[in-house]
Write a structure and sequence with these properties.
With about 425 residues, the protein is mainly β. Helix content is about 10%, strand content about 30%. The protein contains five helices and 21 strands.
Length: about 425
């Protein structure tokens, strides 16, 4: 989805700001109403049994449905072929539709890197085959860029989104950590990987290198997401360094998510403290982090279950994967789609819209209004919205959050097509 400039702010999708909403929240704790902000809150907060005003933001329904955070089984299919006509965009999860997050080998895209894993045997990289079933786990080794001296890579982690590589030069005792500009001093090398799953085919040997990336004209990004350029090359074929995520745009950069392994097929999430997931800038993983839907409390970096619930819901909402919980892993969005959004807790930067598209959970849409879906072309034009198969998911009859749904998406009148 292309970057759009709206209300004086650059965002990956169009959204409003929550500052007015937060002011209303403050006022509502000391008054029964919100004055000029009343239309944002919709209703005064109810009283709890003690007579105090409820602190549940956005309505009376607090709590989350933890059952919807359970991992959804991944279909036995490669990333590209799960979506007819797919080209390695990981269903909009790891990169945008039309992009590609797979390393090239012998002129073709083959290996799609998804997550670093810290194990007792060393650091591994999980790589998904593009055109076949299977994920291969290859060990990560290293060398110094300056003098090719070998290093033992001890751990790869991220502090929220800031990448850190712990290593020790072979023959030395000191353990070092490369972060920021120091990352470019290291060259990572993967073990050989066969071109085909099952251990057959020509073995490919890659080297990788990371460079901290700062958007032009800005010392630091306002969304607090750390970004990096990742370059790779086929050592045995002696290829030139290539940019990872080069079709993704925005400088072909990646970012990281600590402690969560995200399925490249259905965006289901599995908690694992040894995992550091890597995604391209425009995929739903990084986009949701940039929108403010982080699974951790921003001030402390501590994972928060409610925030994680909204983050997982965002993974489905950003890519319009309405029916993941119904067994349909397809993404129903297209590049360039405008998304308006708001969540119950004001974690992100959006606010309420006129026409609701869907209310989201970690397993897709809780409800959906067929007349407000983003792009009918994604369903196969020509289509009458009334004829769209919603797999039993009913319409949204209100703008109230529920235990299952904590994130709304929608459209505004100005976004509607002119007759």
């Amino acid at each position: 989805m292309d970057t759009t400039k709206t209300h004086g702010a650059d965002t990956r999708e169009v959204s409003g700001k929550m500052s007015v909403w937060l002011v209303c929240m403050a006022l509502v704790t000391v008054a029964s109403g919100c004055g000029g902000c009343q239309q944002m809150i919709r209703e005064p907060f109810p009283m709890d049994p003690t007579g105090s005003i409820s602190t549940c933001p956005g309505g009376p329904t607090c709590g989350i449905s933890k059952a919807l955070m359970e991992e959804v089984e991944e279909p036995d299919c490669p990333t590209g072929n799960c979506d007819p006509g797919g080209s390695g965009n990981a269903r909009g999860i790891y990169t945008i539709e039309g992009g590609n997050y797979c390393f090239v080998a012998m002129g073709q895209q083959h290996f799609c890197p998804e997550a670093f894993i810290n194990t007792p045997q060393g650091v591994m990289l999980d790589v998904r085959y593009l055109t076949q079933s299977g994920v291969i786990r290859t060990q990560v080794q290293g060398r110094l860029e300056a003098n090719t001296q070998r290093v033992d890579v001890l751990a790869i982690t991220s502090d929220r989104t800031e990448l850190a590589i712990k290593y020790r030069v072979q023959g030395e005792q000191e353990v070092k950590v490369a972060k920021g500009d120091d990352l470019s001093k290291l060259i990572l090398r993967l073990d050989t990987m066969p071109m085909r799953s099952g251990g057959t085919g020509v073995p490919i040997l890659y080297e990788l290198r990371f460079t901290a990336y700062k958007p032009p004209g800005r010392e630091a990004t306002t969304d607090k997401v750390h970004r990096y350029k990742l370059e790779y090359r086929d050592v045995r074929a002696d290829t030139e360094w290539a940019q990872h995520c080069e079709k993704d745009g925005l400088g072909a950069v990646v970012s990281f998510l600590q402690g969560e392994r995200v399925s490249g097929v259905n965006a289901s999430v599995k908690l694992d403290p040894n995992v550091t997931t890597m995604g391209c800038e425009k995929g739903s993983i990084v986009t949701c982090l940039a929108w403010g839907y982080t699974p951790w409390e921003p001030s402390t970096g501590v994972r928060d279950e409610t925030r994680d619930y909204v983050f997982r819901s965002c993974l489905q909402a950003k890519r319009a994967a309405y029916f993941v919980g119904k067994g349909n892993t397809k993404s129903y969005t297209q590049s360039g789609t405008t998304i308006f959004k708001w969540d119950q807790y004001a974690y992100g930067d959006g606010n309420a819209v006129e026409r609701v598209e869907a209310l989201w959970s970690p397993q897709g849409a809780v409800c959906i209004n067929k007349e407000n879906v983003r792009k009918l072309e994604a369903w196969g034009q020509p289509q009458d919205p009334k004829m769209l198969n919603t797999y039993g998911v009913g319409p949204c009859t209100s703008k109230d959050f529920t235990v299952e749904g904590k994130l709304f998406t929608g459209i505004r009148p100005e976004a509607l097509a002119k007759p």
